[in-house]
Design brief:
alpha/beta, about 45% helix, 13 strands, five-stranded mixed β-sheet, four-stranded parallel β-sheet, binds zinc ion, globular, 13 helices, about 290 residues
C-alpha cells in the first residue's frame, strides 16, 4: 500500500519569516494547483497536513485542497519542532492548530504529523495530547536516527497501533529501507530527490508499505541561498555556524530540479491512497500493537 501525503506550511512560513511577497504566494498557489490537477488526473486522494497558521492566515488554500476531495490533517500550529517544546507548549500548540483547522474546514481533523517528524522517546506524551484532541491517526514517527529527532527505538516500520498511558492511536510511520547498513527514508524529502526513480519504485514494490511525503519546497526547483545566521538559528534552533548552514543548504537543494518530474512519473504509474482511505483498507487485527 502506498500512501501519499503533503505537508503544507510554506505560505505561513514565508509570512512569518518576512519573505512572503505576493509573487511568492502566487508561486506556491500555482504549484499547489499543478499538484491538485495532477492528482485529479489520476483520481488520487492524498492527505495534506496543514499548519494551524495556514488555516488562520491562508484559509482559502486549505479550503481549496479540501474542495478537491483530499484529507486535511494537522501539521502543528506554527511549525516549530514538537521536541523543542515543553509539554504545556505542545498541548497549547496542538489545541490551537486542531481548533483553527476544524473551524476552517467545518469537519473533524483526524490525522496528524509533527513538523520534521519531531515525536520521539523524549516527548511520547504527544500521543496523549493528540488523542485528547480527537486525533486517531498519527504519521509523525521516523523510526531511525535523524537530524533534529527521529525515534530509532520505535519497533515498527509499518502501520501499527500505539498504546500509551491508556490511549490508543493508529500510527503510519515513515517507511524505511536499509542502504549499506543505514536506515534511509526513500519515499520523500531529501532521499527521494537523491535516489533515482527506479530505486524508489523498486523499494516501494518490495516493502509493500510506503509513506510518501513531500513539502512544496522539496519540489520547487528554484534554489534558495544559504540561510543567514539569524534565520538559521530561529528556524533550526542550533548554532548557525557556516558549516551547519552549508550542510543544510546542500541537503535542502540536492536533486530539487528533477524531483517534481520524478513525483509526476511516480503518480502516473503507481496506485496511492490517503490516510483516511488506508485506514479502511488495513486489517488492523493483523498489525502490531506497540506499547510505549
Ligand atoms: Zn512541515
Amino acid at each position: 500500500m502506498n500512501i501519499l501525503s503533503f505537508d503544507i506550511e510554506e505560505w505561513a512560513l514565508a509570512k512569518a519569516e518576512g519573505y512572503g511577497t505576493p509573487e511568492k504566494y502566487r508561486e506556491y498557489d500555482a504549484f499547489l494547483n499543478y499538484i491538485l490537477d495532477l492528482l485529479d488526473s489520476r483520481k488520487i486522494k492524498a492527505t495534506f497536513f496543514c499548519t494551524g497558521l495556514m488555516a488562520k492566515d491562508f484559509p482559502s488554500v486549505v479550503k481549496l485542497i479540501q474542495s478537491r476531495g483530499h484529507e486535511i490533517g494537522c501539521h502543528s500550529n506554527v511549525h516549530t519542532w514538537m521536541n523543542k517544546m515543553t509539554e504545556n507548549e505542545a498541548r497549547k500548540d496542538t489545541h490551537t492548530a486542531v481548533d483553527v483547522l476544524e473551524q476552517c474546514i467545518g469537519e473533524k481533523v483526524l490525522s496528524y504529523r509533527a513538523p520534521a517528524f519531531s515525536i520521539g522517546e523524549s516527548n511520547k506524551w504527544m500521543f496523549e495530547i493528540l488523542a485528547n484532541e480527537g486525533i486517531v491517526n498519527d504519521s509523525s514517527i521516523f523510526p531511525a536516527e535523524r537530524d533534529f529527532g527521529g525515534f530509532p527505538a520505535f519497533s515498527s516500520q509499518r502501520p501499527c497501533t500505539i498504546h500509551y498511558a491508556g490511549i490508543r492511536l493508529k500510527e503510519f510511520p515513515i517507511s524505511m529501507t536499509s542502504v549499506m547498513g543505514k536506515q534511509i527514508a526513500y519515499s520523500g524529502g531529501g532521499y527521494f530527490r537523491l535516489f533515482p526513480l527506479f530505486f524508489v519504485r523498486g523499494r516501494m514494490k518490495r516493502i509493500g508499505y510506503s509513506m510518501c511525503y513531500f513539502h512544496i519546497e522539496d519540489l520547487l526547483s528554484e534554489k534558495e541561498g544559504v540561510s543567514s545566521k539569524e534565520r538559521y538559528e530561529t528556524y533550526y534552533k542550533e548554532p548557525g555556524t557556516l558549516k551547519n548552514r552549508y550542510i543544510r543548504y546542500i541537503k535542502s537543494n540536492i536533486g530539487k530540479k528533477a524531483a517534481l518530474g520524478k513525483l509526476e512519473r511516480l503518480i502516473n504509474s503507481e496506485e496511492f491512497f490517503n490516510i483516511e482511505q488506508s485506514n479502511v483498507l488495513i486489517d488492523w487485527n493483523n498489525t502490531n500493537v506497540i506499547d510505549l
